[in-house]
Design goal:
By secondary structure, this protein is of the alpha/beta class. The chain has helices at residues 5-12, 16-31, 50-61, 77-91, 105-117, 133-140, 158-164, 187-204, 265-278, 286-292, 303-319, 341-350, 375-393; strands at residues 37-38, 100-103, 123-128, 144-149, 169-175, 209-213, 236-241, 254-258, 331-332, 353-354, 356-357, 367-370. The strands form 3 sheets. It has a 7-stranded mixed β-sheet with strand order 2-8-7-6-5-3-4, sandwiched between helices. Strands 9-12-11 form a 3-stranded antiparallel β-sheet. The protein has a two-stranded parallel sheet with strand order 1-10. It starts with a helix and ends with a helix. It binds pyridoxal-5'-phosphate.
């Protein structure tokens, strides 16, 4: 066969998000796009800040030579210094520039980190629901993802995590604000998680790294902030991107930062740099590195998503859907009325409302709404959500 059996298997289980998105395209062709309410894709629907394009244009027009060439695999040193200063100011820790590795989005960064730390048979623990691609990212490098269901309020289930961590556990991934739940893990949870990982690292005589996947960190509502991990836990690694907060997912730019207190920190950094090269990313996009270095701390107008969060919560809450109000990102993760997520998704689809079943994120019994859509989609979906709720609860 032309395609490996592992890839054939992966294709069979191919992403629910894609499946639902394709179903949406079919419905749109049949009923007209304006009559289909597609909440499947987490694709930012606001343009990048005007400043972003101006910085890009100015840089491209600048007389600097070699703008499009290779640089060190870890990225431009001046850019890494700016990222180190920025992240250091947020995490309240001094970070050297060498601890920053520019990456091809959060996905590229995460793959470089996992390739660096995983031995065959190792596992990576995650709280469910989780971003579905983590399963593939771990498997890409011989690792296995172990998912632990979260608590009812969508916070981390520390007791469950304690049971799941074993002597093969190399890392835990957290993602806050979370895709698909919008949950932000409180500082107290992060502190308790740090205690747990520290204790388990001693028991296992090896460091368990905490990988904090943070592409939604700036998309946060009600004036809150997202607790950091560096001050709480020495073996922390941040992986993030500008995909969501600057609305530039196609530009594939992000970074990894290794805590200066991490075990084997020098070796770890050198490993991530090497893996960036050998995985074929080589380096993060050259021009984008220079542009985002001028945009650190900036984002699209977050109130744009906050208003949508408020409206979708109002519509679904009035109907009777049960959910935890998202504190960040642009996702809502309600319980499937009646408990069966596939049935709920199917019933909603009959109303031309497209959402993704929770099992696609390791959490059956829920469904995900990506509310990064036009207001007309949110308003137009209300009747369908109501009819589906009635059908599912009668
Ligand atoms: C939780 C999470 N992590 C990582 C990624 C990948 O981000 P990027 O496109 O920057 O690689 C996404 C994208 O949707 C995400 O939701």
């Amino acid at each position: 066969m032309a395609v490996s059996s592992q890839i054939v298997e992966s294709m069979k289980n191919s992403s629910w998000i894609r499946k639902m998105f394709e179903a949406g395209a079919e419905l749109a062709a049949k009923y007209g796009a304006e009559n289909v309410f597609d909440f499947t894709l987490g694709n930012p629907n606001i343009e990048p800040p005007a400043e972003f394009e101006q910085i890009l244009i100015d840089y491209i027009k600048s007389p600097a030579k070699g703008k499009y060439g290779y640089m060190a695999n870890a990225g431009y040193l001046d850019v890494r210094q700016k990222v180190a200063d920025y992240v250091g100011s947020i995490e309240k820790v001094k970070i050297p520039a060498k601890n920053v590795i520019m990456s091809c989005g959060a996905a590229g960064g995460m793959n470089s980190v996992l390739k660096t730390i995983l031995n065959p048979g190792d596992n990576v623990v995650v709280s469910a629901p989780f971003f579905a691609e983590y399963t593939a990212y771990a498997a890409n490098h011989g690792g296995k993802l172990i998912a632990v269901p979260c608590k009812d309020d969508l916070d981390l289930n520390l007791e469950g995590l304690e049971k799941a961590i074993d002597k093969h556990t190399t890392a835990m991934i957290i993602n806050s604000p979370n895709n698909p739940s919008g949950r932000v893990y409180p500082q107290a949870t992060i502190n308790k998680l740090a205690e747990l990982l520290r204790r388990k690292s001693v028991e296992n005589s090896r460091a368990i790294y905490l990988i904090s996947d943070e592409p939604y960190k700036k998309i946060i509502f009600d004036g809150n902030t997202v607790p950091g991990t560096f001050a709480a836990y020495e073996n922390s690694i941040i992986s993030t991107s500008f995909s969501k907060d600057l609305s530039i997912p196609g530009q594939r730019i992000g970074y990894v930062v290794v805590s200066p207190k991490a075990e084997d920190v020098g070796l770890l950094i050198d490993g991530i740099v090497l893996c960036t090269r050998v995985l074929g990313y080589v380096n993060a996009p050259a021009v984008m590195q220079k542009v985002v270095a001028e945009m650190l701390g900036k984002s699209v107008d977050i109130s744009f998503y906050e208003k949508k969060r408020n409206r979708i919560c109002e519509i679904l809450g009035n109907i009777g859907y049960e959910f935890v109000k998202p504190e960040g990102a642009f996702y809502l993760f309600p319980k499937a009325p009646g408990g069966d997520d596939l049935k709920a998704v199917d019933t909603l689809q009959k109303e031309n409302v497209l959402v993704v079943p929770g099992r696609g994120f390791g959490a059956p019994g829920y469904f995900r709404i990506a509310f990064c859509v036009a207001d007309s989609v949110i308003e137009g979906s209300a009747k369908g959500f109501e009819r589906a709720y009635k059908a599912l609860t009668k």
